Amino acid sequence: MIEDLAVYPDDRTVRELTQDEALDLLAATPLGRVVFTRNALPAIRPVNHLVEPDGRIIVRTRLATRFGGAVRANAGVVVAYEADEIDPVRRLGWSVVVTGVARQVTDPVLVARFEQLLRPWVGQVMDTVIAIEPTIVTGIRLLPREDEPTRP
To answer: Pfam families recorded for this chain (predicted)?
Structure first.
């Protein structure tokens, strides 16, 4: 609405992130959201993750979940993965979206490694490790305008 423009002046700017910047920010935060298809509709689930040096995003889930079952039932499922850190008061921060193919990790050595590195954030057994291979990586950083004094 027009009134909102007066209350929230355009005092921020958006800067596009490089792929490396986006993956670095993603690696520095522990939680994100995976977007997948459920009954031909988009579904979103919060999960914790880690980012491998090659850019793959690793998550653990249960096979019984809709996401785990969708990945296991197919050779690869196109998903999106999103994470952000945005201050709602100052309206500053960043957002990263990765689109790619999710596949179940079946190599026992890798599964054991990821089970040690990535602890579930809920009190349930996570019996499936999934790797998302990034195809499209985008991100933005919300910054104060150049002429605005920098705040600590």
So the answer is: Pyridox_ox_2
CATH of domain 13-142: 2.30.110.10
The low-confidence residues of the chain, meaning pLDDT below 50, are: 1-8, 148, 152
Q: What is the pLDDT of residues 2-39, one digit of tens each?
A: 344 334 456 788 999 999 999 999 999 999 999 988 88
Distance between CA atoms of 25 and 96, rounded to whole angstroms?
A: 8
